[in-house]
């Protein structure tokens, strides 16, 4: 019961051909979850190209009312359940003309057929489909990996809390629930996701998927509950089910009409949908078969009526086709009363309880197709009307400009929406303007009025073939007119295009007189002999574009051996080097020790998205660090050696990324109260965002050497940083008692702590070694410079506890396998 195109030949190019290259689609950039808008032609070029610096995912291309719709037939069970076909007025659906999902042009909920195109690596985080709709999927090409979570009360509450927390990037939602199922689909598989199920999707390789959403009569309570969840989560209107409240009103009216023959539709809607109610005799009413409701429908209608009755007046959204909604609700309650004792077994009939009449209106049979207009015969053949419509020329697809990519530097590129601009100019890149535009294939060639016989004149340069193989004339070439006689050989008519690439009218055509000149009067010039190279040898020579083209992969292997200073010098060579040297793969670690940090420096850092930054001994301020945190979610290592506390305080904000390494050595004025503030939950959270822990909770390596930290600070570290593996407390006023907090059994830190560096801690004694015996994974202990720790105590520690350690230097213990 499902029809799909041939997967072996179908591609993204076919999707573009059926929906149109200018169709704008919503694209999700998976790394930053940023929504963009891109034309179908541009996405096709990206999907089939090799440059995938960004991972784009198209999940909302609804192709109803397009030529692609005729190739896709969804499962028949979906057709038998979908409310859009069963309860929504069908005349509104038939009048839908606009292909896109613009709400002001939408006549019905346009969510039935979607095409999903994803490149390898795309990931859609856990979500519930809008309005609690059920979903059907069919994998045409590629594959998908689903994580499915049932919509229990506990799971839905966890989902709301997880969504409002703002920590979706840090916490995998499947780890929060008790049950989750991983499902892998390959090409040819189909999947139905019931209403309300929480799911995430990962694309292991390039995929083309067809699917759709639908509301049905057997999941009404869940659909209403998900709509309430969306209301509490403040989901924007463009991401919700369109006309959700209107569908509820129409569904209730359809049940009334199909079960009791009563309807509250307006007269216009009755006539358009051919559902005019006629009174029948009592005998016929008694003979009508009684329809039993299923338990799912009965409970769903109860919840539906309750929801419509208590909707606020501003959110009722009563459609234009419904008259007297209060009476509709009252009649619906009596319907439930009459069907309260329905037999559940007799309700299973295999047919839908709601439907629309399938009879064709008589007036539709008399509609005749409009006769196409024919050109007037009064006009002389070969003449062109002066007010004829102009024809815009199109790209030749062959010149160097057409085959070049966007420069991303000109004013038009910076205005494009796909590059972050407002998209108001709507102009192509300056470097991509076609040199030889041609007429479109749909343009009709107007005949040329020939007043006098003219000879056969050829263009000096043959015209290039167009996109579909037809030869056309460029703007600087003359028209080829076949010779009819040799009466006049002095005059020839030449036609030029105007500035708008439209053929000029007859009155504006200039006549060019070419005089015949004998060969004896022509000037003689010396002809330089041709090169001895053959045409085959010349064909083997590289063209200019091939000479200038460079293999990006090979150059990237060269660039990775250069330091950042040399990379900046290479950026001055050409635009290609400028773009390649700015690749984030070459800037994973940036060292700005002792540098002056300004706005341009921060902008360059954001563009290169490094994972490790060293601001040691720099002048970076609190506001600069905050600005960087808000735009660098991938930052994992940060060095703030010898920076002031006023700068370090930026770590206690909601924008701070989840750091794995933090170095605060010799931070000026950094004390225990400051550390407590740093390890507490941030207070600048956004409305609806809940952050209960410090943003440094997942830190694995911490250095507070040379600060004013005491034993109180070590107790805070052991309590708030359970994932810590390495800690440096050198030159701090800590004692053996504070060392014991790091090995306390009250936290999970002793199980994973492996490196402790405590050089020159003069208050540290041999008791610290006894506490270190509680660390099963210890691989490095550094007590060099601690005057109260003896070598004998270290040797006894190695012999007694057998932790596979040895002492290469006095008071320095390391594992033997390191």
From TrEMBL:
Q: Which GO terms describe its biological process?
A: chromatin remodeling; regulation of transcription by RNA polymerase II
Kindly state one GO CC term assigned in the UniProt record.
Answer: nucleus
The protein's required cofactor(s) are namely:
Fe(2+)
Residue span, CXXC-type domain: 389-435
Q: What is the predominant subcellular site recorded for this chain?
A: nucleus
MF terms per GO, please? Answer: DNA binding; histone demethylase activity; histone H3K36me/H3K36me2 demethylase activity; transcription coregulator activity; zinc ion binding
What CDD domains would the database entry show? CTD_KDM2A_2B-like (cd21743), F-box_JHDM (cd22122)
UniProt lists compositionally biased (Low complexity) regions at 374-386
InterPro entries xrefs: F-box_dom, JHD, JHDM1_Histone_Demethylase, JmjC_dom, Leu-rich_rpt, Leu-rich_rpt_Cys-con_subtyp, LRR_dom_sf, Znf_CXXC
Q: Where in the cell is it found?
A: Nucleus
| Keyword entries, A-Z | Chromatin regulator, Dioxygenase, Iron, Metal-binding, Nucleus, Oxidoreductase, Repressor, Transcription, Transcription regulation, Zinc, Zinc-finger
Q: Where is this region: Disordered?
A: 365-390, 445-510
Q: What PANTHER family does its record include?
A: PHD/F-BOX CONTAINING PROTEIN
Family affiliation: Belongs to the JHDM1 histone demethylase family.
Q: What is this protein called?
A: [histone H3]-dimethyl-L-lysine(36) demethylase
Lineage runs: Eukaryota, Metazoa, Chordata, Tunicata, Ascidiacea
């Amino acid at each position: 019961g499902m029809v799909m195109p041939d997967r072996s030949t179908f591609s993204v190019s076919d999707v573009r051909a059926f929906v149109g290259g200018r169709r704008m689609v919503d694209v999700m950039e998976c790394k930053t979850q940023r929504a963009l808008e891109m034309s179908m032609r541009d996405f096709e070029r990206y999907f089939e190209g090799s440059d995938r610096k960004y991972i784009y995912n198209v999940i909302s291309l609804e192709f109803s009312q397009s030529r692609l719709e005729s190739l896709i037939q969804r499962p028949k069970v979906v057709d038998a359940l979908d409310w859009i076909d069963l309860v929504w007025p069908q005349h509104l659906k038939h009048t839908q003309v606009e292909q896109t999902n613009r709400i002001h042009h939408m006549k019905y909920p346009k969510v039935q057929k979607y095409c999903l195109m994803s490149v390898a690596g795309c990931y859609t985080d856990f979500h519930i489909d809008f309005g609690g709709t059920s979903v059907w999927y069919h994998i045409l090409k590629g594959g998908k990996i689903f994580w499915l979570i049932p919509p229990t009360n506990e799971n839905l509450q966890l989902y709301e809390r997880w969504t409002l927390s703002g920590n979706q990037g840090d916490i995998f939602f499947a780890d929060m629930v008790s049950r989750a199922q991983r499902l892998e689909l390959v090409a040819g598989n189909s999947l139905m996701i019931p209403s309300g199920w929480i799911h995430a999707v990962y694309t292991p390789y390039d995929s083309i998927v067809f699917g759709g959403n639908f509301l049905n009569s057997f999941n009404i309570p869940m659909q209403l509950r998900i709509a309430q969840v969306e209301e509490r989560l403040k989901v924007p209107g463009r991401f919700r089910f369109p006309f959700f409240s209107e569908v509820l009103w129409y569904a209730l009216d359809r049940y009334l009409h199909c079960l009791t023959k009563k309807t509250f539709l307006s007269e216009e809607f009755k006539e358009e949908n051919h559902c005019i109610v006629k009174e029948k005799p009592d005998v016929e009413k008694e003979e009508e078969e009684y329809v039993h409701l299923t338990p799912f429908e009965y409970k769903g209608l109860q919840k539906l009526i309750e929801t419509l009755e208590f909707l606020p007046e501003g959110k009722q959204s009563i459609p234009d086709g419904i008259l007297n909604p209060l009476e509709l609700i009252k009649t619906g309650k009596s319907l439930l009363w009459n069907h309260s004792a329905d037999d559940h077994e007799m309700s299973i009939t295999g047919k839908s309880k709601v439907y629309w009449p399938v009879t064709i209106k008589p007036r539709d049979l008399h509609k005749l197709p409009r006769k196409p207009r024919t050109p007037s015969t009064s006009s002389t053949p070969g003449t062109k009307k002066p007010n004829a419509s102009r024809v815009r020329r199109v790209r030749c697809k062959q010149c160097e400009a057409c085959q070049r990519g966007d420069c991303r530097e000109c004013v038009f590129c910076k205005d494009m929406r796909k590059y972050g601009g407002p998209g108001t100019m709507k102009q192509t890149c300056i470097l991509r303007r076609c040199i030889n535009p041609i007429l479109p294939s749909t343009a009709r060639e107007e005949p040329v009025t020939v007043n006098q016989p003219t000879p056969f004149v050829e263009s000096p340069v043959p015209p290039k073939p167009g996109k579909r193989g037809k030869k056309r004339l460029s703007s600087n070439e003359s028209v080829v007119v076949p010779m009819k006689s040799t009466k006049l050989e002095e005059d020839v008519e030449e036609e030029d295009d105007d500035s708008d690439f439209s053929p000029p009218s007859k009155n504006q055509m200039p006549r060019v007189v070419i005089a015949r000149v004998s060969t004896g009067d022509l000037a003689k010039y010396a002809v330089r002999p041709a090169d001895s190279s053959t045409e085959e040898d010349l064909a083997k020579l590289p063209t200019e574009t091939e000479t200038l083209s460079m293999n990006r992969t090979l150059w990237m292997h060269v660039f990775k051996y250069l330091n950042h200073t040399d990379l900046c010098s290479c950026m001055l060579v050409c635009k290609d080097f400028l773009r390649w040297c700015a690749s984030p793969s070459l800037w994973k670690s940036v060292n700005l020790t002792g540098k002056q940090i300004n706005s341009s420096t921060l902008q360059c850092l954001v563009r290169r998205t490094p994972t490790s930054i060293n601001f040691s001994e720099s002048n970076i301020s609190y506001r600069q660090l905050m600005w960087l945190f808000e735009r660098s979610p991938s930052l994992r290592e940060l060095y703030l050696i010898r920076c002031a506390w006023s700068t370090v305080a930026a770590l206690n904000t909601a924008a701070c990324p989840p750091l794995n390494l933090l170095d605060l050595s010799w931070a000026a004025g950094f004390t225990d109260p400051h550390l407590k503030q740093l390890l507490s939950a941030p207070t600048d959270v956004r409305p609806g965002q809940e952050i209960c822990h410090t943003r440094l909770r997942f830190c694995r390596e911490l250095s507070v050497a040379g600060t004013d930290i005491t034993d109180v600070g070590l107790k805070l570290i052991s309590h708030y940083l359970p994932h810590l593996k390495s800690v440096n407390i050198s030159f701090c006023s800590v004692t053996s008692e504070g060392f014991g907090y790091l090995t306390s059994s009250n936290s999970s830190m002793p199980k994973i702590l492996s490196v402790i560096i405590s050089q020159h801690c003069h208050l540290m004694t041999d008791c610290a070694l006894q506490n270190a015996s509680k660390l099963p994974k210890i691989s490095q202990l550094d007590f060099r410079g601690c005057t109260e720790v003896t070598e004998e105590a270290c040797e006894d520690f190695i012999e007694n506890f057998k932790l596979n350690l040895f002492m290469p230097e006095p008071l320095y213990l390391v594992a033997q396998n390191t």
